[in-house]
Specification:
Helix 2 runs antiparallel to helix 3. It is built from three helices and no strands. The protein is elongated and about 60 Å long. With 92 residues, it is mainly α. Helix content is 77%, strand content 0%.
Length: 92
């Protein structure tokens, strides 16, 4: 039993905020790949898929805004807990 507890101490923990950093990097990479693919497609066919481009960038923009909103809420909750010393934050 003591051995298992000793092994668990050395388990590497994920640092805080890695989840959103991963998704932001992933979305930016996807946008770059999408842009290159669209430029190649436009160069070969001469037609611009404007609806697809609009939908794609709308989708990725909304995703990034939602991640920012979540982060903003977490920061506001932490400030409230530090200022008032309780966990009764209702977002207002």
């Amino acid at each position: 039993m003591a051995r298992q507890q000793g092994k668990n101490k050395h388990v590497k923990k994920k640092s805080k905020g890695q989840y959103s950093k991963f998704w932001v990097s992933f979305i930016i990479t996807c946008n770059v790949i999408f842009t290159v693919a669209i430029l190649i497609s436009f160069w070969k066919t001469g037609m611009e898929p404007s609806t697809l481009i609009g939908a794609w960038f709308s989708f990725t923009t909304v995703e990034l805004w939602q991640l920012a909103r979540i982060k903003k809420e977490k920061i506001a909750r932490e400030k409230h807990e530090i200022k008032y010393g309780d966990n009764n934050y209702d977002g207002g």
